[in-house]
Structure formats: C-alpha cells, structure tokens
Amino acid sequence: MDKSKAMILCAAALSLAVWGASNLAVSAQSKTVSLENKTKQTKKDIQTPAIKNLVNIKEEQDVNEQGLNNEIPVGNKVYTAKVTRDHTEIEDLISQQKYEVAKERCLQLLKSNPNDHQTRVNLGNIYSSQYKLGAAHSEYIKVLQKDPDNAGAHNGLGLVYYRKTSSSNMEVRKNIDSYYKGALKEFEAAIKAQPDYYKAYNNAGKILQEMGKIDEAEQYYRKSLEYEPKYSEALENLGTVLYVKNQVDAAVDKFKEAIASSTKNASSYYHLGEALISKGEYGKAINYLQTALYLSPNSAPVHDMLGKAYQLQGNEAAAIVEYKKSVLIKPEYSYPYLRLANIYQDRADYELAISELRSALSVNPDFLEGKLKVAEISLTTGKPDQAIRYYREVLGNKNYSQVALKGLAKAYYMKAQEVSSTAGMISESEYTDAEQAIKQAIQFNPDDIQLYLALLRVSRLTNNDTQSQAYLSRIVENPANKPIDHIIKGEAFLTYKKFNDANDEFRQAIYQVSDVKDLLNLGEIFITNRQYPAAKEAFNKALSLDTNNIKAIRGLERIQRNEEHAIAKMNVAKGFYKIRQRAAAIEAFRDTLSYNPYLTEAQLLLAKTFEKEGYYFNAIEHYTAYINLLNTEGKDTEKYQKKIAQLNEKVQRMQEKGESIKKFTRL
C-alpha cells in the first residue's frame, strides 16, 4: 500500500476512536441574521442576534417585536440570558464526556421548550458521541425539518454518516463511499449556512482526504484555520496532509502546534509518533505514542503504530504484543496482521505468517495487500496452486495488477515444473490470457524488465521458442546496475536451464549487498528458484554479519531438507528407470528436480527416458541442463553435445516430413 493511502486509512481509524466531544459541540447560533428591518435598535452599534435555535419561525417574529430586553416573552414562556448559559454548560459537559448528565439537562430543557433547536442539536451530539447513531440522526432531522439551514444539525448529521464508516458490518463497508458522500454533503450544507463554521471546514477536509482528494482537503483545513488559527484538530489534519506529501518536518511542526493547542488531542500524539518513526527517531516516537495510548487506551491504530516503532527498534517481542492488542480491539483493522506476518516470515515461520493473513482476510476479504503477501509466501514455500489462487483475486485491481501478473507468471512457471498427480492442471487458454495481459502492461511500462521476465516464463510454457529467445535477449541486454537487475537476469537464464550463467548473476547480486536483511531476502528468492548454491552463499554471508540470525540458520536447514528429500525421490525414480517403467520414471525424476535441479544424474537419466519415449524436445532440454551442470570439457560433455546435435537433426527431418513431435507437458 502506498504511503498516502496508508496514512489516510490510519488517520481515519484513529480519528474515529479518539474524536472527542470537542468536535461535536457546535456554536449556540447556527448563523447570524440581520434583523435591522424588523426591530428598533436602542444603540447604533447593537445588532439583533439570530434566535432560530431557540424558537420556531412564528415565535421568532414575536420575539423580534420585543427588542433586546433581558426577558423575552414567547407565547406563555419567557426566555432569558439563562438559555445561553444552559447551552454553554451542556457543551462543557459534553467536552468532559459527562454524557448522561448532559443528556438529562437537554431533556429537561426540551420538556419545557421542544423548539429549542440548539439543545436538540446538543442532544444529537451526545447520542453521536456515544455511537447511538440512529438516535442522533433522529434528533438532527427533527431540527432540520423546522430549520433547514441549521448549521449545527447539518454538521452533526455529517458526523453521523462519517461515524458509520467505522462499523465492522460488512454491508456498511461495501457502501462506504456513499456514506462519505453523504457526510460531505452535510458538511458543505453547514458551511453554506454558516460560512465561518471552522469545524465544518475541518470535517469536510477529513472526508476529502479519505476519498483521496489531498489537495482539496488541504484547502479546507487551511480555511478552517483562517477562522480559528488554534483549532487543534485542523492543525493536526493539515499535518497529515503535509506528511502524505513527504513534507515530514513541516508535518511534525503542525502536530506539535496541535498538541500545544490541546494537550488531550490523542491523535496528534499518534501522528507525531508516526512522523518521527519515518525519520528514524524511534525512541521519541514511542514516548509520544505511549501518551496517545494514555489518552486513548482502546485505539487499535495507536497499538499498531507503537508495535511498528518497537519492531523497527529491534524489540520484536514488544511489537507482537502491541499488534495482538490492536487486532483484539478492532479485528477488521488489517495492518497489524500484515506486520505480524512480516515478523513471522522473517523468522521463517511461514505457516504462522499465512495464518495471520487469513485471519485478516476472514474479516476483511478486500484486503489486497494481505492476498499478495499470502501469494508471495506461497511461492517461497513451493505452493504455486495457492499462489495462483491469490494472485488471480488481485488481478482486477489496477493498483496491484502488475505485481499480481509478475507473481502469477512465476507461479505458473513453478507449477509447470511440478509433477504431482494431485496437482491441478492449467489450461492453454489461461497461459494465453496471462500472456496478453502482460503484453498490455508492457505497453504502459515498456522499461519494466520484470514484465519481460514474466512474459518469458509464459512463452516458455507455451513452447514459443522464437519469442522466448527475443524476450531473453531483451532482458540480458538490459544494464544491470542494482541487485534486482542481476536477479532478473539470473531467473531469465534459468528458464533455459543455463545454471552457470544464472549463478554468475546471482553472485553479482550477493556481492552488491552488505545488509543482513537484504541478504536474507536474496536467500529467500534463491530458495524459491531452487538455486541452493546461491542461497547458501547469501545465508552464510548474512551469518558472517549476524552469527545467530535465526532466519539464515533456518534457511540453510531448509535447503538441507530439500536436498535430502530430492535424493530420496531420485532413488525411487532410479528404481522405476531400472525396471523400464518409463512413465513412472519421468514423473519421479521431474519430482526430484522440482526439489533440486542441481542433481546431474537425475537430469541425465530423465533426458534418456524422454528420448526413449520419443519426447525429443524434452530430451534436448535435459541433456542441455546436464551439460550446463557439468561445466567441464570432458568426454561426457562432448558425448552429449553430439547427442543434442543428433536429436536436433532428427527433429528437423521430422518437421520437414510434416510428422508430429511429442512434447511432454502438464498442460
């Protein structure tokens, strides 16, 4: 997930958790209305205040005729300055989160005057802050039915729609965009009714930010601050926009200003901690995040971010505890699962990593980063079927389709090396569809060599040698300036069983890397490709820098297990070969090589078996692999070079006669 999206989602989740009553309280007046033509002024500089929040329209006319006395008779009732004091006291109670006391005061006032709009708005605010969103919605609608331009009611209604987006209900989450649009409409109505309503500007900015409209959101935050320069929440939100735009130092300043304006603004501490993490100041970040937790102990994003700080500081045990707390508080909050999976993956606990990701997907099936991570780990652990399934589920998303295509091509290629009788077959049309999709992606990204590697793999599976050679040349001719460039070239050579050329490229990648984590990642890549010599070299180099590195140790142990497993399978294959059960021998030798392609004897015996069964293309492929693995100019090399030449001539004669040539394939 890119930084902008992650920032927006985390900000949204935290804001909903800690958005206190201060954001719900609205001014006692929804707007100022000039009544110069309706009343006589006793002094030139006195203006009559709007009182629509106190009485209905008919009663307002009666009040206007009374002027600005301390006592204002309306029908059988008399309103005094005490009304304003009541509203202020209620709003103070709301800001202190004394909701039940505030609610009782509201109900008392409404009993004596059901048309006291400001009190009814405050009652809606109380219900909203308690997440009694249905009750809050009802109170705001009652106000708007009598006073359609009531800014406070529009703002409160917008907050109701916004708060609904925090629901775990999957039906709500499917329609989240409609709630955003509804909220934005209400906030804009509040601004139209009261142009200086700074809280409504801020709220509208938050919706725009979550909709990905960063520049528009920034304009609204700055407009809010024009009317109230010390409004803590707008300062904080402006900081989040600056952070998304990579203006980290400026963002840090805004977060600190927000805290100075309101020391109880928990989300400002959270965002300041996040910004400091990006600067590598983990100790300071932890201090601010702990303050955020003190103010908001049940915030899933704060626990998640604190876990991230601990993880980057090297304290994985503390990180795991915080991630676990985060998902307990809010199970549908996906990022802690992903971070847990990364920790377990680094420890080579792959099944545990996948288990965490599946937990995330069970509550959030649209968590695409989680699906990609499952697919990636599945490739690492040699489970191409599982990888294919998850890559396919991501293909439809334009933000991840290219990553999925590259992984899918690799999974198809890996699956084609499988020979298990229980493995599901892949249709020719699937390869063709994948090939066309990759070609379309290349049109938009002609310099992406990884897409050419994906195309090379698919073309090799469809036996299109002319195109395959062209793709290989395109990759090999590309300058190799970074480790990833050498890895791509090495993997391209592997499609032609050019093991020595591949290993040369892989060693170049290892030579360019000196960071332990990068070496471990290289080792994992090489294991996925069954390139054990390079994998051993990467893991051993990592151990020379970090003697007790668990992942490197487990990586070497895994290689040893695979090599031993391959030897056991080869012995079974040789048994079939000796008794001339060639079909079974082919399956068993291919199974052997899927675990360890460096077994020269298996390559040679498989080539001979293919030749005897009339699979000449396959025989040529494995004789070539055998010669490449020998890497010498001995008698065997010369002998099988002649054999390859003879088979090529035989294939050519058959093609000239129009005879069909068998190809062993899993299609």
Strand fraction: under 5%
CATH topology of the domain at 25-204: Serine Threonine Protein Phosphatase 5, Tetratricopeptide repeat
Structural class: mainly alpha
Distance between the termini: 35 Å
Low confidence ranges: 1-5, 8-81, 419-425
User: Portion of residues in helices?
Assistant: over 70%
Please tell me how large the radius of gyration is.
34 Å
The chain-level mean pLDDT equals 82
Strand order of the largest sheet: 1-2
Shape: elongated
CATH class designation of the domain at 25-204: Mainly Alpha
Number of helices: 34
CATH superfamily of the domain at 25-204: Tetratricopeptide repeat domain
Number of strands: 2
Query: In the CATH classification, which architecture of the domain at 25-204 applies?
Result: Alpha Horseshoe
- What does the main sheet amount to? 2 strands, antiparallel
